[in-house]
Amino acid sequence: MNEKSLITKSAEETKQLAMELAQQIPLSSIITLTGDLGAGKTTFVQGLAAGFGIEKPVNSPTFLIIHRYELKTKNETRKDEHISARFLYHIDLYRIDKQDDIVGLGLLDILKEKESIVVIEWAEKMGKFLPEERIDVQFGYRDENKRKITINFQNPSFKFQ
What we know:
Blueprint: E1 2-8, H1 11-24, E2 30-35, H2 41-51, E3 66-70, E4 87-92, H3 100-105, H4 107-112, E5 116-121, E6 135-141, E7 147-153
Parallel strand pairs: 2-5, 2-6, 4-5
Antiparallel strand pairs: 1-7, 3-4, 6-7
């Protein structure tokens, strides 16, 4: 297990951290986001999307539950010559009450896609459906602007720099 904790002092710093993470993670990653309302989860996803070259506005899919963003086949913002992921899925489970509801969403099929990056807000609601190999990001609210962000890689071969 590889873990790193950081303090961000603004929404821009949170986005920047996520942009840096986007440069390093495998291009078929599952990223879980946990923390209180207003802790910075959606802001973090906005930074990830920017790090993958997505130019569309990224908003919380609270009512739609799932947003899908297409990635370009070549991404100048990454160090890789050719990007292998096709989609970034932004999933928000805030409105989900029971684990059984996860099955009806098609989320289990999305998690099996090898050519996608899947980011799940309120991931703790997935319970038994959470895959073992993932990146967990925990948000702790410090004050109006400060957040403690702990990134935990459930993949022993990956090291965050």
